[in-house]
Amino acid sequence: MPSGFPLPIFSHFVTMKHWLVLEIFASYISSVKGYSLVREYSGQSFFDLWDFYGAYDNTTQGNAIWVNESYATSQRLAYVDSQGNAVIKVDNTTDVSMGQNRSTVRITTQDTYDVGSLWIIDLSHIPFGCSVWPAFWSFGPNWPENGEIDIIEGINLMPDNQISIHTTPGCTHNGSEYQLGTSGSTTDCSQPSGCTVMETSPNSFGSSFAAAGGGVWATQFDVSGIFIWFWSRPDIPASIYQVDSASIDVTQWGIPHASYFSNTCNITQYFSPQNLVLDITLCGDWAGVGSSYSASCGNSGPTGLCYEDCVMGPGSPRYDDAYFNISYVRAYTSALPSATPTPSITPTTSINPTTAMTSSTTRYGGLFTHTSDNNGWGAIVMLLIAAPIAVIGSWPLMFKRWHHRSIPPL
């Protein structure tokens, strides 16, 4: 720093620089009205707009039969309970013989949801137990090329939820500091494990999740990135509990638990509109193999093998906790206050529906995002505003470098 440069002014100036940048971003975020509800799955009509898989698990090699709707309903593997919550469960009443698989459920939304969406799920119970592999996730119509987002996923007796994304080659995860979870060792999201983030907040999976009264996940699917939050029941923000559930404000949610920024993974390139999925499989190529199984469940039966010790034989008490209990799933879309028209949804009836949610609006994400228009003008405007402030704020550092090199500033 040049001799005679007033240090107190320098310190105050740097503080002002950071304050101005934060104010600009806060003002920009607060100018957005928020997200508008486009679909709610809840109550007696919860299952109306989902397709049942109706086939063996041919995706994870699990020892499960994802039954059709009529069988799931008649056997009460999928139903709405007396509290109005949707229940999806593994068959815990059948004695399964060698060579047979156990009945369970996989359902997929008939609608797809495009970039600019927000999905919220409220549950009081997630399936757990040896051999059990539940998930709440999304995929594009041409899976796996159109991307996959795993919001809730875990196996066996894992204590914590694992979030991940899966893509074709070229998308990476930089392990950003702007997340509360812990990133896995793989940064290439095309690898079999995908780019994982392990939840670090308590009560995100298993028996502790249920004991805490459940919780809520929110997933922001935005052009600027994919951001996922989790709250245990006591910590759910007021904006989610608000009476008017037709709109929601994400600006007070704080740092996400998992953040996948578009600067290392172009969201519109690697993800198409997404279907939402709820499923439970058994054993398979994660829950039932190697140390993944033996670490917590290797002593659960005489053989030390997932299928023989868990799937075979009586279902109770083995699978008494293998069920989802869901209050609702809600899908929202975002738009600037003046943007029209509102995005629409076109339901489909196939198990693998085509794009059903389209919009010509200027979309807006929440925290750590910019406007989601195709031309990226929101990001450009923010850059034009923030860059001069950052440059001005770096002048004292430039003076310091010049002084160190004995080169006088111009």
UniProtKB/TrEMBL annotation:
Keyword terms, alphabetized: Membrane, Transmembrane, Transmembrane helix
UniProt cross-references to Pfam families, sorted A to Z: GH16_XgeA
UniProt-listed Gene3D superfamilies: 2.60.120.200
TM region positions: 377-399
GO BP terms: glucan catabolic process
GO molecular function (one): hydrolase activity, hydrolyzing O-glycosyl compounds
Highest taxon in the source lineage: Eukaryota
Protein name according to UniProt: Concanavalin A-like lectin/glucanase domain-containing protein
CDD domains: GH16_fungal_Lam16A_glucanase (cd02181)
Residue intervals of the GH16 domain: 39-295
